[in-house]
């Protein structure tokens, strides 16, 4: 019996998107390939039809939270399908004092009505102070939108290297791979979604290589994929060398904290048997280590993340408060396999976390008392209850073709004592929508109402109507997720039996139409009075002498140490989850501490520190290109460097005089502590 696998927390999430007053009117329309599925639904089929079914026929929407108009609140960008504009919900919080939104997607130039849009990421590609959009497409060119600083966007996609034929992209991420101060873009590509041959019939030839677009300045990019090494995958059989994987998600993050961004991708095993069953492993969490110059090596086998799975989403964070970057990957889960032929042993396909060791490798500890975890897509690591340790949030619905997996109720895993051991917080989602009826793909985290607690935004590609009856899988695993182990049979046995796919036989469409996908915006309501600190990084390239970091500080690693508490790190990551991007501001929970210390490791390796940061504080942390961790000829040289940089930041009104004094005293203290520390 499991006694401690669930918890009743003091944070509740409530959806506001269903309230018309919110202005969040969204419905994901199907992709054009849905017409293929409509034809198949007219016939009697058997399980052998599965490879012919299109995947993501209803689309694959993503979501991003960013302040597009620089008015001080987070806006919501969510993608849509052909002939319908992507939505840019402009927050009215600063204008009215109330959280509501106006959809300006079409009039802002970010609607992209002609594109079947999938994932999205953002960042300031030209270091002009506003964030630009990169929007992905299904079997069509991706689009680059420059923010002109006046609340609108200009399509500059012609500045991208042309790819022929266009690929089907799922997730993108930005980061400065060569530390030249300019954001580059990496794209996770998959295969043509018109059928599932790449998932079940052809193991390699239909897969599409990921891409690395190198920023050349002037908002132009060249394709550096081959030269960068990201096309060289470790662990492939000799006869598959040079082929691509299927990557559903990707992220640029400095996982080893050496001052350059690395690349992590989550890859798909599909219905192919793994090596343990006589087949070949192809679905890994891959880590591409950066040599500091934008050249990457796949080190997945060496570091221990090369575990076969149908990995779909990714999140990074410090799950055990040891100052190292851990990884969470969403996966197929055990529940889907209960309705299908099982190639994998129980537990192998679970959504789970990998804990970083001191030697640079990762431990795969399993999921502990949770026993099992469900399918997931979008994911994030954040301290949702601000108690001082990072938690895991992941949603997802699995459209397997003949049925929809509905085993994920909207999963919030609470970290107990910052030890990477988690319990399911069921109460947190009791007053919100039933995510089991939503086929969620994209998920993004950020503080929408500016109360210091993260909120959850998710988007589905289709929903089930209320009258559609969900069925429960028969097998129990003694897991807190047992009560959510549901699925919806899109096709049902023609003989009326309760058996399912692994029993064979004929199937027919159940006649229940799928509803358009929905947007859920779940605001946190907390009663624990835990403190917090919110941090926005700002690079100084082009602003300060020797400033080297991109304007958003993307790729930085931020550490916070509350007085009397454990240090926690977080990454400024521009694209991860599944087709989505979290807000760039990071929030650290203080629990009951009153203040703490911030430290930033910038791309390039400089470290800055800020002491005595009080609770409920929003900190704009600019790059001071004078790392206290570097070797200086004298303390005077270091002091001159800091003074010069801070004077310039005051002159351009990045910081105030009071903040200058705070950063100056902190810089000197950090240098003193470093130089006086024993070797």
From TrEMBL:
It comes from hydrothermal vent metagenome. PANTHER family: CARTILAGE ACIDIC PROTEIN 1. This is ASPIC/UnbV domain-containing protein. Residues 553-619 form the ASPIC/UnbV domain. The lineage of its organism: unclassified sequences, metagenomes, ecological metagenomes. Gene3D superfamilies: Integrin alpha, N-terminal (2.130.10.130). InterPro entries: Crtac1, FG-GAP, Integrin_alpha_N, UnbV_ASPIC. It holds the Pfam family UnbV_ASPIC. Keywords: Signal.
